[in-house]
Amino acid sequence: MSNRSHPNRQQEEYDELDVQETAGSQDFERTIFIQTHKVGYLIGHHGRTILGFENDTGAKIDILVPKSRVLETPIKVSGKEANVRHALR
Q1: Per-residue pLDDT for 46 more than 80?
Q2: Rounded to two decimals, what is the model's pTM?
Q3: Residue spans per domain, the chain
């Protein structure tokens, strides 16, 4: 079996990924996977797209494996739960 993620994942699988809440705080994070060749679209020209998402939603978006060579790249979205859910819509 290959270590590569299946390229046709369903949204329900993303909902089950790596959700962590820190006790006693509003911190919430979710890790999703996007196709590696689309990471540039998420970042945008000079980072404008990703910064726009962060400013519009209040969530922090981190690319966990820059210059990934696999089919999918993990992206961490963190912040208050409502902000993270808004960013993932």
Answers
A1: yes
A2: 0.69
A3: 11-87
